[in-house]
Amino acid sequence: MKRLISVGLAAGLAVMAVLAGCSSAPEKIRIGEVTRSLFYAPQYVALEKGFFKEAGLDVELSTIPGGDKVMSALLSSGIEVALVGSETSIYVSQQGAADPVVNFAQLTQTDGTFLVARKKEDNFSFDQLKGSVFLGQRKGGMPQMAGEYVLKKHNINPQSDLQLIQNIEFKNIAASFASGTGEYVQLFEPEASRFEQEGIGHVVASFGKESGTVPYTVYMTKQSYLDSKAAAIQKFTNAVYKGQQWVASHSPKETADVIGKYFESIKPDILENAVKRYLDQGSYATDPILDEAEWNQLQDIMDKAGELKQRADYAKLVNTTFAKAAKEGK
Predict the structure, then answer these.
(1) Are residues 49 and 166 in the same domain?
(2) What is the mean pLDDT of the segment spanning 153-182?
(3) Count of other CB atoms within 10 angstroms of residue 122
(4) Which residues are registered as beta bridge partners of 311?
(5) Are 68 and 141 in a shared domain?
(6) Domain-terminating residue out of 182, 211, 240
(7) 240 forms bridges with which residues in the sheet?
């Protein structure tokens, strides 16, 4: 009888252990990033430093090229969280989505592209672009809209004052310029730094500095997921904030060393220089709060590009509750 009791007790304890293990299992969140970019350095730091794990999350990262494809994955529940430009949430809203896509944590706060000239120009002015062949970004995407916004700010009509090329796929733009297409090109890092090192081109201006502070790349999810998984979203946002603070308080070399595994084809010195360039111009948001002034600036840029049907409601498409709580340490 004692043996039966002991066996029963042992079995009961085993079941309890299993149940306890299940209850403490990390929450899985799948992120779909629109591209692999060192522009997203705080995210990779959060992954590599274990900030998501410390928060009790099992984060799976995948790269899904194209904002439309990222949104499709999010809306079909192929991923839980999208990392993409805020303009995509506005496009979804304009299509009358029953389950709105909500921005809850900002990662980058400026455009990430630079104007690269084929020839070195020590005293560059935007007037020099007139009559030139300009290799721009995809129409309707945030890089192209920010680029056109800056050109118009300098009294340049992108459609009539220069020869604008914008039918080349994002992944092929740098290669096209390197092979001889265009006199100027709009590039992200690390391609801009690599071109300078290899003598292919020279950075003459920053679209990030010129276009102002905007919610350029943001974590977003469906309203229904936000409602049902609020605790997980808070943990996620807390981890993102730790990544942002880590990048802000460490040297470009330290950040480059941590994120190097995500960019194995990039030379360490180029990676470091690119991180420094983004840090110097304040591209990495130091907290995840997306404020209304940034939201309005984004819509001004979209409006000037002819891509905004109507102004989008900040209160409907942005939720700062989680970001503010993360910053306050709650």
Answers:
(1) no
(2) 93
(3) 6
(4) none
(5) no
(6) 211
(7) none
165 contacts 135 by C-beta, under 8 angstroms: yes
Contact in structure between 136 and 144 (CB atoms under 8 Å)? yes
In the prediction, which pLDDT does 2 show?
41
Q: Enumerate the β-bridge partners of residue 135.
A: 165, 185
299 and 247 in a common domain: yes
Quote the tokens at residue 138.
């995809």
What is d(CA 228, CA 147) in angstroms, rounded to the nearest whole number? 38
Number of domains in the chain: 2
Say yes or no: 220 and 105 in one domain: yes
* Cα–Cα dist 136/169, whole Å: 10
Omega within 30 of 0 (cis) for the link into 190: yes
User: Are residues 197 and 127 both part of a single domain?
Assistant: yes
Cβ neighbour number for residue 26 with a 10 Å cutoff:
14
Pairwise CA distance, residues 112 & 100, whole Å: 26
Alpha-carbon distance 291 to 202, whole Å? Answer: 34
Q: How many angstroms separate the CA atoms of 321 and 190, rounded?
A: 33
CATH number at residue 155: 3.40.190.10
pTM of the shown model: 0.89
Domain membership flag for residue 17:
no
Instruction: Tell me how long the chain is.
Output: 330
Residue 3 lies in a domain: no
Predicted pLDDT at 102 = 98
**Region class of 284: left (phi > 0), else alpha (psi between -120 and 50), else beta:** beta
pLDDT level of residue 11 (50, 70, 90 thresholds): very low
